[in-house]
Amino acid sequence: MAKAKKTKVVNTSGKRKTAIARATVKAGKGRVRINSIPLEILTPELARLKIQEPLVMADKKSEVVDIDISVAGGGFMGQAEACRTAVAKGLVAFHEDEDLESIFRTYDRSLMVNDARRKLPKKPLGRGARKKRQKSYR
Questions:
Q1: How far apart are CA 80 and CA 26, in angstroms?
Q2: Which of 66, 111, 126, 137 is the most exposed place for a label (fewest CB within 10 A)?
Q3: What is the pTM of this model?
Q4: How many CA atoms lie within 13 A of 56 on its CB side?
Q5: C-alpha angle with apex 117: 75 to 37, nearest 5 degrees?
Q6: Over the stretch 74-93, which tens digit does the pLDDT of each residue have?
Q7: Angle in degrees, CA 12, 40, 38, rounded to 5
Q8: What is the rounded CA–CA span in Å between residue 38 and residue 43?
Q9: Does 32 fall in a domain?
């Protein structure tokens, strides 16, 4: 029996607030799909442009890979930022390119690093994390 040819596949993830994106990067023709929807027809346009940033910066390196992303949680911009982090990490891991990583880091550090910021918990005697009821003392 002939051995099956092994293809390189890289799995990465990106996070922003409560949105989590998981990306699978493999050799291909430059197709990008988010939850089975091609990136070209993804709406809103602002989110699409945000996701395309690492693809444009990688130039030729993004045209030889197919990227499938599944994203859940959060709002549409949180999901878009989680996707761009997953895409950037995936491209760097697939090509094993230190120069590409330094380009991403100098442009925007959040391309390579997950966002750890979270909402503060609500405290007693207030309506939110910081807001308190006013006191008059009269």
A1: 21
A2: 137
A3: 0.85
A4: 7
A5: 30
A6: 999 999 999 999 999 999 99
A7: 55
A8: 10
A9: yes
In a domain, 118, yes or no: no
What was the pLDDT predicted at 2?
64
In a domain, 38, yes or no: yes
Provide the number of structural domains found in the chain. 1
**Is the distance from CB of 119 to CB of 16 less than 8 angstroms?**
no
- Residue identified by tokens 């989110």 is 47
For residue 23, is pLDDT > 90? Answer: yes
DSSP helix/strand/coil, 75: coil
State how far the Cα of 21 lies from the Cα of 54, in Å rounded to an integer: 15
Rg, C-alpha atoms of the chain? 20
Q: Return the sign of the alpha-carbon dihedral for residues 39, 43, 48, 49.
A: positive
CATH number at residue 23: 3.30.230.10
Its domain, for residue 30, covers 9-111
Residues 79, 17: contact at Cβ < 8 Å?
no
